[in-house]
Amino acid sequence: MNAQLVLTLLACHSPADAGAAAESFSKGDLQTALTHVPRSYSTRWTASQTERTALRSLEQSHLLDAAKRVLQAKELGRATTAISAGIRLDPQAFAGLEASLLAEIATQPDAAEAANTWVALSEAHHLDVSFHEQAQREARARLDQGLVQQRYLTDAQPHTLTTFAGVNAKMLPAALERIHTDYRVSPPWTRMSVAAANRLALVAAHPDVVSALPRSSELLRACEDAVPVADQASLAQQGAELLSIGVAAGMPEALLVAEWTEGAIGALDPWSSVVWPSGLTGWDIHHSGVEVGVGLTIDLFGDVVRVTLPDPAGPAWAAGLNQGDALVSIDGEALQNWPLQERLVRARAALRGEQEVKAVLVV
To answer: Which of 333, 228, 351 is nearest to 285 (CA)?
Structure first.
């Protein structure tokens, strides 16, 4: 068969168009044969767009119904998941449910669960590219305020310190250098400096932080007095100075570095984020596309490790574990005997292993 005819037929997306193209080709009418290719492609593309729009609308409707149902039942973990997914589709449609969820979370005694909710909603808005840039920054600032408020409640602070375990001062200039090297356009250093100082100011002004560390007011004043800078070197210097003031006030270095860096990078664009050492293993596994384990996503709620999401294809689900179950022991080791700051990291590591290796869980 003529190679030109083969290519033309391959470009057709329906037997009818392919047949018409072949007939025209056999008559030597290449021009007519080629008209079947763009017509077929255009029709298929239009149908595909219509189908995608319909599916998106159906998904949004389903998420709205599901979010309303679980929120009414006060299943806040599931409500967070549904509303976060909905925000990515249409933030305006889910704004009322988001406000109701945040009001409900504010009444809950579990500070760690509240912090997880703020993280999920913040990430959802961060990834929503339909927001106007200014509206997105305002939403991000509002959610950052709520996230910090929940992170530094006295009961939630151990979980926060676990999240930032392994963070040190060298990571601050390293993060800025990575941005300078890899970013395709000139980074908005001035906007980043304002956001980073504002983030530390939120931490320093937190009532529970002030109660435990009265000298945190020194960091607050320094953040409020910080002058926006316009280049990488000045931003790194400003970050180091604020870090020094915070450490002198008694605040953990890891916490200061992490909050300052998250604040700065949060103002960079809607997609960039930081992966801290405590989350590096999960990040590597996620991006390698390969994971062997019992099929559980877990998190720390207060001092209890609970299942946040079982994998329906995993052995844990088959054994009857469900969302919300508390893990008591893994392979005979009681989780309460592990230091609180290490508990979640050790539990996650224990639930991964080689294929065919068994793990004994008590819930």
So the answer is: 351
